[in-house]
Design goal:
37% of the residues lie in helices and 10% in strands. By secondary structure, it is α+β, with helices and mostly antiparallel strands.
């Protein structure tokens, strides 16, 4: 597996090796990155279709990251409005993306769009409880019907948000995108986490912050009051100025 700045895309298949190489390339140009999207879900153990390798990066480094990935051989999007990865009605689109082929892409998400309450990625301590390495033994192994699971390569440099912080981010996104077409999307992702990851070594609801935990538990129990709890949390976050404007 080729890593770091000497990596060049030559139509490799989308898989752990390619994801590791992309992450390594970003690391080599000092662009901190966290795995995101459906690929992240499969590492957590969620069975889902993967059509991208997605990463969250600092806002002000999106252009240098995009340029480096293009220089490495990933393909610019020439499909304009016909590209499903640019369809704003389907799912929240990435800030920028490049193509692996017609269907698969490498996506870059701005931190302020999805993980705005997370610490600055450039100044994270080496051992941070909110971050996991993709080969962490606490992550599940690959299993039929349970996603790809943890990476087997060692050493592994691919980083991801821990499942607890990820669920909190999903709930924040639910609150931000209230009454929009994206609300259903975030709720579906959170439901997958409940179905496939809750109660495993990486996701204990008791470790969620209180406001998030109340809604999470209600969703888990199918409590009809869960939406009023979400509204209560949302209003509290607005009062505390912790929610950015939708599509800001």
């Amino acid at each position: 597996m080729v890593m770091m700045a000497d990596f060049h895309f030559t139509e490799q298949k989308l898989g752990n090796d390619l994801v590791s190489s992309i992450s390594g390339l970003l690391d080599s140009i000092n662009v901190p990155n966290l795995l995101w999207g459906n690929y992240l879900l499969t590492v957590y153990g969620v069975p889902t279709i993967v059509d991208e390798a997605a990463f969250v990066i600092p806002d002000d480094l999106t252009q240098v990251a995009f340029s480096s990935l293009m220089s490495a051989g990933f393909l610019p999007c020439n499909q304009s409005s016909g590209c499903p990865h640019s369809d704003t009605l389907r799912v929240p689109p990435a800030f920028k993306h490049l193509h692996i082929n017609d269907e698969l892409v490498v996506s870059l998400y701005r931190k302020s769009d999805v993980l705005w309450e997370f610490e600055d990625l450039r100044y994270l301590p080496e051992k941070n409880p909110d971050i996991m390495i993709a080969s962490d033994d606490r992550l599940p192994s690959a299993s039929l019907g349970r996603g790809r699971g943890r990476f087997s390569s060692h050493p592994c440099t691919v980083k991801l948000p821990c499942a607890v912080r990820y669920c909190e981010a999903l709930i924040l996104l639910l609150c931000r995108d209230y009454d929009s077409s994206y609300e259903t999307y975030w709720l579906a992702i959170l439901s997958y986490m409940l179905e496939y990851v809750d109660g495993t070594d990486i996701l204990d609801e008791n470790k969620l912050q209180e406001g998030y935990r109340k809604f999470y538990h209600a969703l888990k129990q199918g409590d009809p009051e869960m939406y009023s709890m979400l509204d209560e949390l949302r209003l509290s976050l607005i009062e505390e100025r912790r929610l950015p404007m939708i599509n800001d």
